[in-house]
Amino acid sequence: MIVRYTGEVLALKDMNKKVVKHKANDKARNLIQNERVVLSLLGEKPAFCCLNLRYAFETSASYALAFQFCCGGDLDYRLNSYRKKMRNEGVSKLKGLPEKEVQFYAAEMAVALNHLHGLGIIHRDMKPLNILLTKEGHCVLSDFGLATRVKKGKEEKKGRIGTPGFL
Ligand SMILES: Nc1ncnc2c1ncn2[C@@H]1O[C@H](COP(=O)(O)OP(=O)(O)O)[C@@H](O)[C@H]1O
Ligand SMILES: [Mg+2]
Fold first, then answer.
1. What are 78-82's contacts with CB under 8 Å, separation 24+?
2. How far apart are CA 136 and CA 54, in angstroms?
3. Which superfamily does CATH assign the domain made up of 2-166 to?
4. What is the pTM of this model?
5. For residue 161, how far is the Cα from the chain centroid?
6. Residue 144 CB less than 6 A away from ligand 1
7. Is ligand 1 within 6 A of the CB of residue 112?
8. For ligand 1, atom 20: residue with the closest CA
9. Rounded to an integer, what is the distance from CA 64 to the centroid of its chain?
């Protein structure tokens, strides 16, 4: 996490160059570049429902992306803390969050996907860990590492991609 002189708190996604090199090959580097390209495309038409990239830079040790900070954490964290709270209150057969809350998040994610698809971007890694909660209680879609672009009139993308377990 970094704090600008303005006092604004940002989240920093820092990718160690050594780890990237060790992992690989051009594939890992391409993933980082890919995320950067998709984010800059998104930055041209910012939307409240997609995570906003503020800065991108590299140092001798790492590649870094700085984002708006979402202090509510991710949806996975929200789910787990809700389950824990309900268990402490003696509710044992709990499956998920309250229906109204789920409806709200689903509606905001529909807006996010609609925005992305309008720009020709497919996210391909939607899961609770990649949905972040802002201090106002809104959710934003994040992590564009696996996102891809589809150009109008071009061949459609086929195949399976995403996080194992969510496919
Ligand atoms: N802007 C942010 N504000 C708050 N937490 C964040 C932010 N970006 C990422 N995180 C946290 O870091 C985790 C990993 O970030 P992510 O961009 O999804 O990286 P990875 O490519 O490793 O999955 C997220 O699941 C979330 O918990
Ligand atoms: Mg992620």
1. 78/128, 78/133, 79/128
2. 19
3. Transferase(Phosphotransferase) domain 1 (1.10.510.10)
4. 0.88
5. 16
6. no
7. no
8. 143
9. 15
